[in-house]
Specification:
glycoprotein; MHC_I/II-like_Ag-recog; alpha+beta; transmembrane helix; Ig-like_dom_sf; Rano class II histocompatibility antigen, A beta chain-like; Immunoglobulin-like; five-stranded antiparallel beta sheet; binds 2-acetamido-2-deoxy-beta-D-glucopyranose
């Protein structure tokens, strides 16, 4: 059974009261279950990062976390118009976006993989392009055995709105009879893709890699397990972070004082 879970951070607002004080309201939709049918809407009011009160659509009421906001929550919970407003927000922000979220969750693109060699320093480069989502695993194999030393990675870089590229570097001193393979694992692939290095191919004179050897020089950049992508829309941008989608928008559902 498919369980998908997404969280939309729909609005973030900072109302600055003084140089130090600010309040923030964030709205979050969680989609779960088959067809993403279980939708939970959470609204959180914070003051200086401290959570003051929270609305949970599953419980259907506000919870206060300070003496004052407990009182406010009590008031709002007895206000039928507040319940209507929350229901409207839930529909507008969560329910009406379900299809969009579903598409977002379904979108995958298989990586295009290229192997190259550099002479100075002697490095093999395994590059994966145009893949989505960001999570990917590149592994070097020498005669079928995983190589863990003298390996470094670039971070997965955004290649425009939806696609990523990544490069893995292996310090390489050719030895007769060895077989070097770059193994690529990605959500879009049903099984790991094996790309065998063919030393008879001419070395690339110049490889178009932005990060290039920085990865090797700086040390080991571990590929993060999370993934983030941005999609520009007219007034909002989407950040997906391990199944979390944030859409900061200009307008708040409602920002009452705390
Ligand atoms: C909110 O609702 C839950 C169950 O629906 C209840 O247990 C809880 O006491 C309520 N909280 C407030 C502050 O009314
Ligand atoms: C909202 O309330 C439901 C029912 O009490 C609970 O299962 C769920 O974890 C709550 N969600 C959050 C984000 O606290
Ligand atoms: C909150 O209320 C409790 C009990 O009424 C009281 O003991 C406590 O001092 C109050 N806290 C603040 C910060 O006012
Ligand atoms: C996304 O996946 C869901 C369930 O797996 C399916 O119902 C829906 O049609 C898919 N959407 C697209 C655009 O493929």
């Amino acid at each position: 059974m498919h369980i998908l879970l997404f969280c939309l951070m729909l609005s973030l607002v900072n109302l600055v009261f003084s140089n130090e004080d600010y309040s923030q309201t964030s709205a979050c939709c969680t989609f779960k279950g088959p067809g993403l049918k279980d939708i939970e809407y959470i609204l959180i009011d914070r003051f200086n990062k401290k959570v003051m009160k929270e609305f949970n659509s599953t419980r259907g009421n506000w919870t206060g976390f300070t003496n004052y906001s407990i009182e406010v929550a009590k008031d709002w919970n007895s206000d039928p118009y507040d319940a209507l407003r929350r229901a409207f927000e839930k529909k507008l922000l969560c329910t009406d976006r379900k299809d969009y979220i579903q598409d977002l969750g379904n979108f995958t693109a298989a990586p295009t993989v290229k192997l190259n060699s550099l002479k100075h320093p002697p490095v093999l480069v395994c590059s994966a392009y145009n893949f989505h989502p960001k999570q990917i695993q590149l592994t070097w194999l020498r005669n079928g055995q995983e190589v863990t030393s003298a390996v470094s990675f670039s971070e997965a870089m955004s290649d425009g709105d939806w696609y990523y590229q990544i490069h893995s570097y292996l310090e390489h001193h050719p030895t007769a009879g060895e077989k070097i393979t770059c193994m690529v694992e990605h959500f879009s692939l049903s099984k790991p893709a094996l790309h065998v290095w063919d030393p008879s191919l001419p070395a690339a004179e110049r490889i178009k890699i932005v990060v290039g050897l920085c990865g090797l020089m700086i040390g080991f950049v571990i590929v993060g397990s999370g993934f983030i992508y941005y999609k520009r829309k007219s007034d909002a941008y989407v950040t997906q972070y391990q199944g979390r989608v944030s859409i900061p928008v200009e307008q708040l559902p409602r920002a009452d004082s705390t």
